[in-house]
């Protein structure tokens, strides 16, 4: 997801995406613990996406 796409999301959409990505990273970590996943960079990418989403959410909260 690109930064322009993130900036276009509403506060509710950002909150939903953060929750979905948090669930996704939990599943990825669990799968990695059981047996190595095909692309372990997905965990890192998911963490960074959550950080970008939270940053934009905080910026929108401060703007209001």
TrEMBL record:
Keywords: Ribonucleoprotein, Ribosomal protein. GO terms for biological process: translation. InterPro entries: Ribosomal_uL29, Ribosomal_uL29_CS, Ribosomal_uL29_sf. The keyword Ribosomal protein applies. The keyword tRNA processing does not apply. GO terms for molecular function: structural constituent of ribosome. One of its GO terms (cellular component) is ribosome. Belongs to the universal ribosomal protein uL29 family. This is Large ribosomal subunit protein uL29.
């Amino acid at each position: 997801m690109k930064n322009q796409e993130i900036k276009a999301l509403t506060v509710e959409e950002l909150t939903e995406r953060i929750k979905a990505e948090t669930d996704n990273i939990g599943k990825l970590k669990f799968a990695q613990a059981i047996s190595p996943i095909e692309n372990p960079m997905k965990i890192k990418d998911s963490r960074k996406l959550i950080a970008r989403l939270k940053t934009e959410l905080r910026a929108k909260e401060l703007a209001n």
